[in-house]
Automatic annotation (TrEMBL):
All residue ranges annotated as the FMN hydroxy acid dehydrogenase domain in the record: 100-472
Name assigned to this protein: Uncharacterized protein
PROSITE patterns named in the record: CYTOCHROME_B5_2 (PS50255), FMN_HYDROXY_ACID_DH_1 (PS00557), FMN_HYDROXY_ACID_DH_2 (PS51349)
GO molecular function: oxidoreductase activity
Length: 484
């Protein structure tokens, strides 16, 4: 097909675009698009491959109506397509302009400052957004500052070991990279670049269902990176991939995905249970509404402001997921299973009763329920009301941990490992693979320093007496009708 012909098809009555050298007619999909018609219309008559890859995996194309694929574009006529939007033109500028030198990034917060300089408004609103007024996210960040250490002194801390394990797999540090959806908003090469960034350190990463690269491509990128640098690899501490599952309402589709993940070599399945519906992402809604208004669509803007139009497909999450569904998920997976999004002691105990291998205490980065409990509160609640969970499951936490010392606090209170998300998104956006590596180095150095100053030399020496756990435990809200 001719590029000049495609360039003319940029209205709500006829909207074509180019994706990976193929022409698609998305006119009939405009009203079905989860993010609203405005996003598609902005790419009408253009080569939308770069923008598409920042948000979606190629697998998403299966959701287009039958007949949408019109055929390949004549590559000699691509120059006749409509020019890039202003936002796309900004992305073509050399990356890193005005950024501080990477060596000057000495705390994880430095990456957020750098990323804000680099990211387009839509990308920034997506990653920085929280639910409602932001109370849950603010509580995440504030909670860990309430924990104080009780250091022991005059101990030989010349040599310390930060080695830990996750679900039976050795790792050099007790923290991992949390799953982050639509990572293409941070970097054009998205999850592949992220995986390359944590290859050398040996830490683990949990990959999201809504990644912008395919499951197989992500797994292959780690294998290729390890093989390419085999001479520098510590085989006993090789990085591992785990998978965060959003369970589709279509069981057959969910099973198909589980089997793909298993075949790709992922080590464990982390089933997301805190997203039966999408939370109120306030900043994201405003951004979508603004885009719709810019395209002259008042109705789309109204829908975006009310959350009717979102970045998430309706068939991506299931509002009917129940505890009994874990049975068939476990059967199809056949390996370690973690329940992601536990927010109270009762559910932690239920996860243990259902035979899960781990739980992740999380409020989804403060992006779901308004006034949700932070992971620290849930961890303390478990310690108070069902401590047996800590001995039978691997308990992970995430949300608001920004320092290696925070990681140590969580371990002292019974956590097995800590997930860190946004700092790695920001590091990837600003510096690519090198940023991911630097973020790991910062957290690792802070953890080792905190261990020395607290007075321990290995993680098997962590203990609640090293923090002010008793005072914190007294502040836990006691359920009026506990059903533990």
């Amino acid at each position: 097909m001719d590029g000049a012909d495609v360039a003319k098809r940029n209205t709500s009555k006829c909207c074509w675009m180019v994706l990976n050298a193929q022409v698609y007619d998305v006119t009939s999909y405009l009203d079905q698009h989860p993010g609203g018609a405005a996003i598609l219309l902005a790419q009408g008559g253009r080569d939308a491959t770069i923008e598409f890859s920042r948000i979606h995996s190629p697998d998403v194309l299966q959701y287009l109506p039958t007949g949408s694929l019109l055929g390949p574009i004549d590559t000699s006529t691509i120059g006749a397509l409509a020019p890039p939007t202003n936002e796309e033109a900004l992305r073509s500028l050399p990356t890193g302009e005005g950024l501080r030198h990477l060596s000057k990034c000495v705390v994880t917060g430095d990456f957020e400052v750098a990323a804000k300089m680099m990211l387009p408004a839509r990308s920034w609103s997506y990653v920085s957004s929280s639910s409602n007024s932001g109370l849950s996210m603010a509580a995440n960040l504030d909670s860990w500052s309430a924990v104080r250490f009780r250091p022991r002194v005059l101990r030989d801390v010349q040599t310390v070991s930060t080695v830990s394990s996750i679900l039976g797999h050795r790792c050099p540090f007790p923290f991992y990279i949390s799953p982050m959806g639509i990572l293409g908003r941070a970097h054009a090469n998205a999850e592949v670049e992220l995986v390359r960034g944590f290859r050398r350190s040996g830490i683990h990463g949990v990959i999201s269902t809504v990644s912008t690269k395919t499951t197989e491509e992500i797994a292959s990128s780690l294998t290729e990176a390890l093989e390419r640098h085999d001479d520098s690899r510590d085989v006993s501490a090789a990085p591992q991939l785990h998978f965060q599952l959003y369970t589709s309402p279509d069981r057959e589709a969910a099973i198909k995905l589980i089997h793909r993940v298993k075949a790709a070599g992922f080590r464990s399945l982390w089933v997301t249970v805190d997203t039966p519906v999408l939370g109120k992402r306030t900043i994201d809604r405003r951004q979508l509404a603004e885009e719709a208004l810019a395209m002259g669509s008042d109705e789309q803007a109204r829908a975006a402001g009310l959350g009717i139009v979102t970045h998430v497909r309706q068939n991506q999450v299931s509002a009917s997921l129940a505890w009994t569904d874990l049975e068939w998920i476990k059967k199809e997976w056949g390996g370690p299973l973690v329940v992601k999004g536990i927010q109270c002691a009762e559910d932690a105990k239920l996860a243990m009763d259902y035979g899960c291998q781990g739980i992740l205490l999380s409020n989804h980065g403060g992006r779901q329920l308004h006034s949700a409990p932070d992971a620290l509160s849930t961890l303390l609640e478990i310690r108070a009301y069902c401590p047996e969970v800590l001995g039978n499951l691997e308990v992970f936490v995430d949300g608001g941990l920004r320092d290696g010392a925070d990681v140590l606090k969580a371990l002292c209170l019974g956590a097995k490992g800590v997930g860190v998300g946004r700092p790695f998104f920001y590091a990837l956006a600003a510096y690519g693979t090198r940023g991911v590596e630097r973020c790991i180095e910062i957290l690792a150095e802070e953890l080792a320093t905190a261990m020395r100053l607290v007075g321990i030399t290995s993680l098997d020496q962590v203990h609640p007496d090293l923090v002010n756990a008793r005072r914190l435990a007294n502040e836990i809200w006691r359920p009026l009708d506990s059903r533990l």
